[in-house]
Amino acid sequence: MAQLKPIRFISPDKSQFHHTLHSRVDSYFKENNLSKHANTSVVIKSGVLLSAYLLPLFLMSWFQPAFGWSLACWALMGIAMAGVGMSVMHDSIHGAYAANPRINELLGYSLVLLGGAISNWKYQHNNLHHTFTNITHYDDDIADKPGLRFSPHTEVKPIHRTQWWHAIFIYGLTTLYWVVAKDFLQFVRYRRIGLNKNTPAQNRVLLAQIIGVKLFYFSLFLGLPLLAGIPVLEVLAGFLLMHFICGLILTVIFQLAHTVEETSHPLPNTMGHIENEWAIHQLHTTVNFSRHNRFLTWYVGGLNFQVEHHLFPKICHVHYPQIANIVERTATEFNTPYLEHKTFGHALRSHFAILQKFGRQPMDEMMG
After folding, report:
1. What are phi and psi of 316, to 5 degrees?
2. Domain range holding 85?
3. How confident is the model at residue 2 (pLDDT cuts 50, 70, 90)?
């Protein structure tokens, strides 16, 4: 696999959008004497979600309830697992949770509790996705998956024609694939494309760390209940249920921000340039949803405010509802789109509509 060619964002009209927006958001925090990081409510939420994720595991292992109650515990863990990823891990690894880097690093280890490798997450999410949002072959979040096509610039296959309904089952396997195989495949890929610039010695340590993460994770979430005497099939059934719920939630929430009808998928020109300012590119490739749904905003860690998150990834999600008005007003002044779905249902319909479209193009275009 060849190394990724450099891409530059070039604004033909020398737009001042990004500078103006940052100045206004900075002024908002200064005028209101606010920290850009987590507040008490976020800390409390972190404790609630981490407790809802870990306590059922220990309670099951100790009390060994009936199978039905055990499955209910695993289901709760799946919901909480997704919540930890969105509300705790995500901000921490972006450096947005706390002003103190050590606190961010410590809370970033919550990803280990989810079975993932921090280094790969930073490469995929912080580096590729946030820099090259919706750019095919650069943004891993829209890379084709087995049976799924997320870009209009990749090959359409017969199996993609039914992706608008079979996607839901594949989404449920996402985190299971992640903890079993994805980190190892990414470790190899990121070295080949030149994203991982570590020395061979450093990569041997990194690989050992990834293996250690997996051993710890499986020892805790499979080994502990098995050692407690819970039957193997019951543990496996619950473990798979937890991952299906978590995978479905995480994948849907992230896809609703970028793989919908309104977002674009620009390609670099022959010079390797995206002819847009980076910040304006984010507005063309990212969409909000359900901005006024307080519970959803609480649970998904503000990921329904993806526009604000992409523009200000180092600001904690608790502030997104307040700065959204600033972003929307500034975008309007600069004649730049501010994409939004009013409800979760509207966003979901748009996502499955674009899956159906991508599953048929360019086949339908050629027929037409």
Report:
1. -60, 145
2. 37-367
3. low
